[in-house]
């Protein structure tokens, strides 16, 4: 029998290994794809009070996902703990991502100077902005910004939720990670200006408050400059999102580069836009910070087991 705390470690290591080997589950079977279809169905209806309806759905849909995960894993808790650990690892794998982010970011940065058109096409997978008129340096800036923000959204946030609820149970940890992923997915699909998406955006702001700042600390350490997040405070708060500026700002400060989204924000305005070498340094910091996040949560399971 695998003791429950050690199941946390097994689940995290399994999720990390699957992410490294396969990146993400196949799109047609990915739980996020199925969840997205449910969101589309709900969003394409007419509501007399769209802001209220959107707020209710913003809470109800992630809560339903969490309950389904919790219920499914609770049903198998009487069986050997390794079964619960494997199922929790599968949930965590489908709720988080690191290496696919590194793959796309690496392609964009590598092509940004020699093949900017190819870089612009690849960048569309990372950012929501118009990429057609971006210069090579602006392409790299957008890629570095997205790498930092998506590390927070796509890895540190679900891992943080998993770690926090690991003190309750393995099913609760898996359910928490799934809840965070659902919240983030709703925000990406609906959380734009408009009454229906208001609730999704605000809930995502709340859920991401701590993970964004934890990510900033991880990136500072990973880039060899632990003080970077503190120096970045003055411009980290200038982004429209109350959270995205923290990991982006920490990376801008640690690498001493300027990150800019035209007409919206400028981070570390006294520096220059990233070079290819800066982009490679950003990739190395993202990789190190992501692996550190996996390792920290895996270590938590060992500590609880001892």
Provide structural commentary.
It is a single chain. With 306 residues, the chain is mainly α. Helices cover 73% and strands 2% of the residues. It is built from 13 helices and 2 strands, in the order ααααααααααααββα. The chain has a two-stranded antiparallel sheet with strand order 1-2. A hairpin with a 3-residue loop joins strand 1 and strand 2. Helix 1 runs antiparallel to helix 13 and helix 3 runs antiparallel to helix 8. The longest helix is centred in the middle third of the chain and has 30 residues. The radius of gyration is 19 Å and the shape is globular. The relative contact order is 0.15. The mean pLDDT is 95.
Main sheet specs: 2 strands, antiparallel
Low-confidence stretches: none
Main sheet: which strands, in order across?
A: 1-2
Q: Pairing-aware structural class of the strands and helices? A: mainly alpha
Shape: globular
């Amino acid at each position: 029998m695998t003791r429950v705390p050690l199941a946390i470690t097994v689940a995290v290591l399994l999720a990390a290994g699957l992410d490294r080997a396969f990146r993400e589950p196949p799109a047609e079977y990915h739980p996020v794809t199925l969840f997205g279809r449910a969101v589309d169905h709900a969003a394409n209806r007419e509501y007399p009070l769209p802001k209220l309806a959107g707020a209710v759905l913003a809470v109800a849909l992630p809560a339903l996902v969490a309950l389904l995960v919790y219920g499914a894993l609770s049903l198998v808790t009487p069986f050997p703990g390794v079964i619960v650990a494997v199922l929790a690892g599968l949930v965590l794998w489908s709720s988080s991502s690191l290496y696919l982010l590194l793959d796309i970011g690496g392609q964009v940065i590598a092509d940004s100077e020699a093949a900017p058109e190819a870089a612009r096409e690849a960048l569309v997978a990372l950012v929501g902005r118009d990429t057609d008129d971006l210069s090579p340096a602006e392409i790299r800036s957008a890629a570095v910004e997205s790498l930092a923000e998506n590390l927070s959204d796509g890895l540190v946030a679900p891992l943080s939720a998993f770690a926090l609820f690991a003190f309750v149970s393995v099913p609760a940890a898996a359910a928490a990670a799934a809840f965070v992923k659902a919240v983030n997915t709703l925000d990406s699909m609906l959380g734009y200006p408009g009454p229906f998406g208001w609730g999704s955006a605000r809930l995502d702001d709340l859920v991401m408050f701590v993970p964004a700042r934890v990510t900033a600390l991880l990136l500072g350490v990973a880039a060899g400059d632990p003080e970077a997040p503190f120096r970045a405070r003055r411009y980290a708060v200038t982004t429209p999102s109350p959270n995205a500026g923290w990991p982006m700002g920490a990376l801008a400060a640690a690498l001493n580069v300027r990150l800019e989204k035209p007409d919206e924000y400028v981070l570390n305005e006294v520096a220059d836009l990233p070079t290819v070498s800066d982009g490679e340094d950003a990739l190395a910091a993202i990789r190190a910070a992501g692996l550190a996040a996996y390792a920290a949560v895996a270590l938590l399971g060992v500590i609880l087991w001892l």
